[in-house]
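Retry 2 of 3 after timeout on previous attempt. Resubmitting structure tokens to design endpoint.
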């Protein structure tokens, strides 16, 4: 049985407790693939060189980073730095880990004309180096897992022209989970789950069936929209959106913390099938 973990790249996330908890579970015989974000690291690097950070909001409300030729260089550097830190954190805890920081495992198609709002203005963006994920290398991931390694994947993809592309980490994790027929996808971030009231961290939606997702989509704000899309695309028995800041965050998520989005068979067992 394979599980996929996405460690968010937002501000304020301490990966140490996550890695400690993950290492214990791997040592007990579980198999995991790790995907991570790099947004806060990229923002910090951009700040050091004075490059403004801009976002694009699509017609569907999904928010993404504007990644021009300068930003893709910084983004790749940031993704590599985060990847190395996570791999090192697992290795020092006794886990064999393989860092996939470059465009080695994800294939994507570059978005050549993006209709979006940039800083509140409608635009068509043609110089963005972001991509739509097409596939992940199942053979490579399987070889690593069978060899006893935990793959750690950065959200950098290879485009059809050999270019490096920024791809959404949540959607990378969903693609990996679907490709490997994982049992569980856990997305840890700096929020406790899907909230009924964005201003109230205690208003977490505890769970619902995947078939009922459309009823809950209007609650999603900002980055949470991508997380619900990832849950839909993963098509695995269980997706959990939870808080990386909890003690033993993986154990907490698997014990019921956060928002659990379940396939129909699993949802029937807990009484909220759609």
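Retry 2 succeeded. Sequence:
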């Amino acid at each position: 049985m394979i599980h996929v973990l996405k460690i968010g790249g937002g501000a304020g996330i301490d990966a140490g407790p996550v890695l400690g908890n993950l290492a214990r579970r791997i040592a007990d015989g579980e198999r995991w693939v790790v995907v991570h974000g790099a947004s806060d690291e990229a923002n910090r690097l951009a700040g050091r060189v004075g490059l403004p950070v801009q976002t694009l909001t699509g017609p569907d409300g999904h928010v993404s980073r504007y990644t021009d030729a300068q930003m893709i260089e910084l983004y790749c550097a940031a993704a590599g730095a985060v990847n190395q830190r996570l791999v090192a954190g697992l290795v020092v805890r006794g886990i064999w880990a393989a860092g996939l920081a470059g465009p080695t495992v994800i294939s994507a198609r570059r978005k050549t004309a993006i209709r979006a709002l940039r800083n509140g203005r409608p635009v068509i963006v043609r110089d963005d180096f972001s991509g739509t994920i097409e596939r992940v290398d199942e053979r490579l991931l399987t070889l690593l897992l069978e060899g006893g390694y935990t793959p750690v994947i950065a959200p950098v993809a290879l485009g059809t022209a050999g270019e490096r592309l920024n791809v959404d980490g949540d959607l990378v994790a969903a693609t990996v989970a679907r490709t490997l027929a994982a049992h569980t996808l856990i997305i840890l971030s700096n929020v406790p789950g899907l909230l009924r009231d964005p201003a109230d961290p205690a208003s977490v939606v505890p769970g619902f069936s995947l078939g009922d997702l459309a009823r809950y989509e209007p609650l999603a704000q900002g980055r949470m929209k991508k997380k619900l899309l990832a849950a839909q695309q993963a098509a695995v028995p269980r997706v959990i959106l939870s808080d990386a800041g909890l003690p033993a965050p993986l154990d907490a998520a698997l014990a019921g913390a956060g928002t659990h989005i379940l396939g129909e068979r699993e949802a029937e067992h807990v009484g909220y099938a759609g």
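Attempt log closed. The longest strand covers residues 2-7.
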